[in-house]
Here is the input.
Amino acid sequence: MDNKIAQNDEILALESIYDEKMFLVDRERKNPRGWFVAHTSVPRSLCLVCNRDGKQEEIQINYLPPVILHFELVAKYPSTSPPAFLLSASWLTLKQLSNLCSHLEHLWKQNGGEVVLFQWTQFLQEETLTFLGINRCLDITSLMTWKPKKVYNIDGDKRHMLRNFNESEDAGTRKASEPGSTSYKQFQCMKKEKYVVDQNQGRKTHCDHYSHEEDISKVNVRTCQTRQVFKPKTTRGQLEFDQRAVLEKKSGERLLSYLIEYNQYKLQETFDNEWHFCKVCLCEKQGRECMTFFTCKHIFCKDCIRSFFEIQIQDGKVRFLSCPEDGCLSQALPTQVKDLVSPELYSHYDRILLNSTLESMSDIIYCPRQYCQFPVMLEADCNMATCPSCSFVFCVYCKMVYHGISPCQLRLEEKKEIFEKYLKAVGKQKQDMEVRYGRKTLQTLVDNTLSEKWIDINSKKCPHCNTSIEKRDGCNKMTCWKCSTYFCWLCMSRLSSTSPYLHFNDLTSPCFDQLFQGIFNPADEDDWEFGQFL
Here is the structure.
């Protein structure tokens, strides 16, 4: 069969198998050129290994960036010559890339003059790691520490040092890139590259400048002086490493960050395309319509979780945005809440959460000015506080203007006496008290004292945070609204967070079989009233 016909048939077959995100060919050239993005199969137990600051780190990964095969179908292919090609990757050493290049050439020889591109693509996708002996660990320490020595062009002896781009240009271009994207227009490997040659190391690239092209056939190869030497090759060359092996060089920390970000991107992409069952609405939905609680990994659809969050936030229960799974205590992250609810509701949630957190801190007090109410940090063993918002200096005990070493105007013992005296006072006696203490101060004292009395009569203190709890109905197993502590309403002892009802089932417990003790049953009252007339 004629070489040209065989090449056209092979291209048509590959285009029917792979989409443009993986395989693309420029037919306008005399010798067709193209790219293939090989997503290598990664074993489940693979981990990245690197040595930083003398400490070895291991990071579990599920995906690796693809290996890029840039090929050119020369006139003698497939009858007497393999395709010319370049093989590039950021996470393989030049030695490993050279071994892959040699094996690709070996596969063509085995085929005996037949087309081989499909066999190459299958090998790069399915057998790359197995061929290189990478089973459990991928050590990238040498790639993170490698630095080029001297840069030469191949045709002459003149040295060409690599020109670095400005940091502002590099940073500005990276913002436009999407980490981990697999399309030719977005993937980081599809960019203008500067190929340089180390006199001892072979071919390398320096990837500091990203440029996403509208058409992959328009990607330009940037070199130090000559572009010809960086075209795909059919032979190994005379250097220590295969001249068809191209190392996409990134600095140490950037390489590690790139691999981690790509892995996270692919994990999210896989999750978004899978179907998941929501235990709330009992429907199957795609991952992009679902949310995962990071601690417990339970998955629910966003519509159900959004409704649940909105109800809890509107009721002021910002500390109860937990997983709906029965018995699960995993909390949603603030970023997850922000993605689901409206901006106005999230602001309300953020404000309540902040206030609730500040109130639980013993060294925080609010500014007593009604229009301010700014949280103020207290100093140890000091009765003076200064509001950073309105600069009001006040006493932390009586909440009045700071009075130095003078005693507070209203002490705890005095409050009860003044309260009772003010309630009984009439006429001039009442006016004299208002002049001395202030009418507003006395009215506040009356309101607070009455409130405290009502709270003391109708509530009990949480055994953990000392918050007042009122019981309206239900069993004697109580949950603190502030700290979520379980406790017994009868004996006020703290209950187990995992088995709170064991307290009422234990024979040795003073509250055994008294879970519903004291609950009013309307049916019992009806029976009693009916019995009075018998």
Residues 413 and 500 are 39 Å apart (CA to CA).
